Amino acid sequence: MRIAFLTAHEGVEQVELTEPWRAVAATGETPQLISTRAGTVQAFNHLDKADTFPVDGTVADVSPEEFDALVLPGGVANPDALRTDPRAVAFARAFFDADKPVAAICHAPWTLIEADVVRDRTLTSWPSLQTDLRNAGAHWVDEPVQVCLADSGPLVTSRKPDDLPYFNEAMLREFGRIAA
Which active-site residues does the annotation give? Predict the structure, then answer.
């Protein structure tokens, strides 16, 4: 399986990129870093610059059909930038249109709101997004992880870095269902 990790060129919360990446890679699947620009992605540890990561492809150069699932890491700036990029929004929406699994953590559901794919779904997120999600028609819950099976492929959401063990477990379980 090929798993797309979609981020903006900067602002992704490093641990929300690296921990799910390691979890996917440990299963033998192929994670690919897809971004809005070629080159590298600048990650952050909250507000401080962290490491950079090489981009495997851009939303302008790859197709969602090339991937089996999508991971949307958080950070505040990352999904805020993604939701203003029409190609990134279309890339994310295509996974829902194709009934492919999606996993999003922390602030990442902002991109899903822009893609208009949260209506009538149950999600969790960083708490400050709950009003945005409710206004977009979602049902928000305050849980470490939430798996929603409504309408299309599974949507796995989680609140914050502390929830990564739950997020990774649910993500791998749901991604594994399509590999079986």
Answer: 106-107
